Amino acid sequence: MSEKEHYGESAEMYLKTIRELTSNTELIPISQLAERLGISNVSATEMVHRMQDRDLVEHQPYKGIRLTDSGAKQALQVVRRHRLWECFLTDQLGLPWEDVHDLACDLEHASDPRVTEALADLLGKPEICPHGNPIPGINGHCEDLRGQPLEQLSEGQRATLVRIYPESNALLAYLADHGLLPGSELQVIEVNRYDRLWTLQVGKSQEMISNSIAKRMIVEPQTIAAEA
């Protein structure tokens, strides 16, 4: 891989990750970006400066970073390719729902725009990926994200799991093993105030999840918290 190709792939990973981390905040520290990518702060800072020179990222010293308009547009293009590949891998190749995220991460960097749009046509222009997240349109428009994190619910509330965000293969594998897929109906039975473990009723079984997982399970509440 040439240096130019390596930069392009790395920059796309940065763009997608910054978009993900700034979904609920305006600026993020470079250290948070480095932690998510599993690299050193020095390496992250160097890449951020290179991307800043290309008007992809805005860096406010001692405050953090965010995408520029150009960076946000390119990030959405990467997300579009990623989620279309996830659909292809599950719908056309029959690969497990929990395995396609990492595979799509590799494919998203090697797709010519013509391939991306041919893929969209083949799949019937899907609007959501297998994990419930919206697929940005060819014009860069992305529908508003549905739902709210499970961690915002109270004991007794019922909800429908609509999407997983952000995803990782390890998280998806865990949720699949416990029957927690988009469309699953659940009820919050108990939230342990000491260690923040959540007990959920899912069908006929009870499942326990950590609060870090509850943050990434996006749900649509069905009812107000049950009365005592």
Structure description:
This protein is an alpha+beta fold and 228 residues long. Among the domains are: 3-67, Orthogonal Bundle (Arc Repressor Mutant, subunit A); 148-221, SH3 type barrels, CATH 2.30.30. It is built from eight helices and eight strands, in the order H-H-H-E-E-H-H-H-E-E-H-E-E-E-H-E. The strands form two sheets. It has a six-stranded antiparallel beta sheet with strand order 3-8-4-5-6-7. A two-stranded antiparallel ribbon has the order 1-2. The longest helix is centred in the middle third of the chain and has 24 residues, at 69-92. It is globular and about 55 Å long. The N and C termini lie far apart (62 Å). The model is unreliable at 1-6 (pLDDT under 50).
Which regions are unreliable across 5 or more consecutive residues at pLDDT < 50? Answer: 1-6
Sheet with the most strands? 6 strands, antiparallel
Number of beta strands: 8
**Shape, please?**
globular
CATH superfamily of the domain at 148-221: Ferrous iron transport protein A (FeoA)
Average pLDDT value?
Answer: 90
Rounded Rg: 19 Å
CATH class of the domain at 148-221: Mainly Beta
Q: What portion of residues is helical?
A: 40-55%
Number of helices: 8
Task: Kindly identify the CATH topology of the domain at 148-221.
Answer: SH3 type barrels
